[in-house]
Amino acid sequence: MTITENQESAEVSTGESIEKTGEKTEQDIFFYRVQYRDDGQFVTASCSIDGLPADSVVMVQTDHGLEPCKIRGIAPMCGCREHGRKVDFEIKRMATKSELNKFENLAGIEDRAFQICTGLIKKHNLKMSLVRVERFFNGSKMIFYFTAENRVDFRGLVKDLVQEFRTRVEMRQIGVRHETKMIGGIGTCGRELCCSSFIKKFDSVSIKMAKEQDLPLNPTKISGVCNRLLCCLTYEYDTYRRQRKKMPKPGRSIIIDDEQYLVRRQLVLQDAIIVENSVGEEKQLERDQWRTYRLAKKETQDKRKEKKSRE
């Protein structure tokens, strides 16, 4: 069922629960991609009605009350609960006219708070850099995100902010990866940064992951906008590990078709290996050529076994 313009305007004016406008049963759940801020991440929200129009503003339930979000489209099927992916929010109803006006003014309030806080930071001579200001829709709290190399005594700053905005104030220190996530940007791949578009939790990334995938260890090649190792190094790491375990390891002597070779390197993407024969010639063996390999016994191992048997 698709919401008509009359139904949509009625909901906007009354703010009634969205379930009352549909003819669907409670068992019918639909999933949408919603965005809390115009520059924020897309998250998945559930609703009992189908066909909510794109760019409409709905109220979703959060830990600190109802917050407005814009619908950006239908969530992919893999985002459903049946497929095991977490649903981030539940859509409660359409936003009322007063909530729409308040939502439109929210960005301006946050921008003003950012400018005021920046001035107060200079006034208190604090070594910190303000990244973003977030104000709860109900006005009960404001969060000021900042970066700093060391711990900062911001008690005087908080006191001034409370006097200015007459609400609860939280100063939250974040790292460079979270800063990049909030600011956003374009990666070297030409796409929007993963952290600002869909990553919700940062996984640990190590240089070992780059080595496992045969990537050049040039810092400029494997580092992101945040000057930390690329988050995408984790995406195929497990696949590479599993595949390498199925292939003969470099340095091993193997026998294929009664001929002995020394494995030089693995080509995971091609599912092939580079080997060297007894005369020093290298060649590439495809999967159907090396899959029946067997390990060649080393002379040193044979001698040790003979020695133990004599003893």
Q: Can you lay out the helices and strands and say which pair or pack?
A:
Layout: H1 5-14, E1 30-35, E2 42-47, E3 57-62, E4 65-74, E5 89-94, H2 97-123, E6 129-135, E7 141-147, H3 155-165, E8 168-173, H4 176-183, H5 194-197, H6 207-212, H7 219-222, H8 237-246, E9 253-256, E10 259-267, E11 272-276, E12 282-285, H9 287-290, E13 294-295, H10 299-310
Parallel strand pairs: 2-5, 7-8
Antiparallel strand pairs: 1-2, 1-4, 3-4, 3-5, 6-7, 9-10, 9-13, 10-11, 11-12
Helix pairs in contact: 2-3
Q: Which features characterize this protein?
A:
311 residues, five-stranded mixed barrel, five-stranded antiparallel sheet, 10 helices, elongated, PSP1_C, PSP1-like
> Which value, in Å, is the CA radius of gyration?
29 Å
- Please give the order of strands in the largest beta sheet: 1-2-5-3-4
Give a count of the beta strands, DSSP E runs of length 2 or more: 13
Computed structural class: alpha+beta
Low-confidence segments:
1-14, 19-26, 79-85
What's the story with the biggest beta sheet? 5 strands, mixed, barrel
Number of domains: 4
Instruction: Please state the average pLDDT score.
Output: 83
Q: Would you list the SSEs in sequence order as H and E? A: HEEEEEHEEHEHHHHHEEEEHEH
Please count the helical segments: 10
Sheet-strand content, in percent, reads: 25-35%
In helices, the fraction of residues equals 25-40%
Query: Span between N and C termini?
Result: 85 Å
Shape: elongated
> Please, what is the oligomeric state?
single chain
GO cellular component, one term: cytoplasm
Pfam families: PSP1 (PF04468)
Organism: Desulforhopalus singaporensis
Protein name: PSP1 C-terminal conserved region
